[in-house]
Task: structure prediction
Amino acid sequence: AWLIIAIMGTLGTIYQIHVTKAYGIAKQAGVVAGVSYLDVVFSMIVGIILGDNLPSTMVFLGIIGIIFGGLILVKNKGKK
Result:
């Protein structure tokens, strides 16, 4: 169990370092933020792969909203 916790901590730290670098490199932070909302979607996919139950219809609707919101944000920020 401790090994799994150590791996999760290490991967979380690596993730945070790279997200911070992305915000520093990006000319528009809104684009990075829009893409980072996909964390919820990827977490759900990994959960399903590891044996979690399928989310409810409301969860799927929320995920669709997150995806479309991120796409709209990225599209609008890219125009400026």
